Amino acid sequence: MALLPGDERLYKALQEQDHIYTLTVCGRDGKDEVHHIGSLVELIWGVENPEAVINKIADKEIKIITLTITEGGYNIDKASGLFMLDNPSVKEDITHPHSPKTVFGFVAEGLRKRKEAGNGAITILSCDNLQHNGNTAKKAFTSFIQAQDPELAEWVNQNVTFPNSMVDRITPATTPADIERLNKKNGTNCKAPVYCEDFVQWVIEDNFIAGRPAWEKVGVEFTDDVTAYENMKLSLLNASHQMLSYPAFLSGYRKVDDAMHDERFARYLHTFMDKDITPYVPAPGNTDLELYKQTLIERFGNRTVSDQLSRLCFDGVSKIPVYMMPNIINMIRDHADLTRIAFFIAAYRHYLKYKTDDKGIAFEINDPWLTAEDEKLIESNEPLDFLGLSPFQSTDLKESAELVDIYLRMVNDIKEKGTMPILESIIS
């Protein structure tokens, strides 16, 4: 099911192809595998047919709803950790339950019909890049439903589970140029092709109130607690993506693999993972952490995946609190070396404030959750003000004298000398 107006192109493309699409799995050895995926048996676009979405959620044959609505899609206030009931779209759905527009309104209306029909329990499984994503989904949906329909909220507490999950596979957004490239390479005429890397890991908390498929037969790992797996992925993969994003973009790179084939960036990330993150990441299960880190470097440099750096730069306000801040707080507490963290923060400020890379090329930023107060802090010519930006508000960065000292120097050096010379100085 697709709910957004922007989903129209993909929805219509899949409709034309009887819901079949091509998946190109891009090997790190340069060899690709092309698959025709036919697992989509039905597709509903909520803008066109909202009642069909609601009825599908209420259908007694449906036992699991999976969600991919991005980190910012859960409408959780980053400062308070609470669901934002004053969001205009949310307020509209609370007062008009039978004509929903948000994912919260659709799910609530579907669950209401499910309850009224006696169609039983259901699981809502988040697949988003959030630590404890199931807990976040539970907070968001139960907060909305409690505000809209307290009686339904009681039913949800007894009949809906929200497992935590960790899914790991780099799958870039497919651009029009990618569509042309993939079809030419594969000899296909797919209007909705997908491409991804050859690595996949999916770990899920086994908490399915209405049963589940035997996904373990196709490689899914079920566990009682996904915390260690989440921490490893978010702290190493996602945080490394963030560490790479702004410095590489400012240096003039636009593709992740191009930046990673620059030995300076590869060394920068390796050092970040080894010195800054590994002390805080216990290896889950039988994971070989050294092999995992080396595999990450190889994955980031995969030429045939060729992810866009702009995608990594997108929505730093939502990503940084999740991927970066927990370990930054630990590092400040332990008086660890903050050089690379200060460089990252200075690069993020330069990216948002000046909107021009080291080669003089102007660009537009895409950080949709920046607040009006954030904009003032970015515009300020006092670099310390930037440390009060909303993604950093889980701690007062200005209280760390070590961080402030290095950060102020990095801000000045990046502006005067450019990003790459500063990168070179911190990896030498």
Task: Provide a compact summary of the structure.
This protein is mostly helical and 428 residues long.
Verbal overview:
With 428 residues, the chain is mostly helical. Helix content is 48%, strand content 9%. The protein is built from 18 helices and nine strands. The strands form three sheets. It has a three-stranded mixed sheet with strand order 2-1-7, covered by helices on one side. Strand 1 and strand 2 form a beta hairpin. Helix 10 (263-277) packs across helix 18. The longest helix has 24 residues, at 227-250.
Q: How would you describe this structure in keywords?
A:
single chain, 428 residues, mainly alpha, three-stranded mixed sheet, three-stranded parallel sheet, 48% helix
Strand percentage, roughly? 5-15%
Uncertain runs are none
Sheet bearing the most strands, described? 3 strands, mixed
Helix content estimate: 40-55%
Head-to-tail CA distance between termini: 50 Å
Based on CA atoms alone, the radius of gyration comes out at 22 Å
Q: What string, H for helix and E for strand, traces the elements in order?
A: HEEHEHHEHHEEHEEEHHHHHHHHHHH
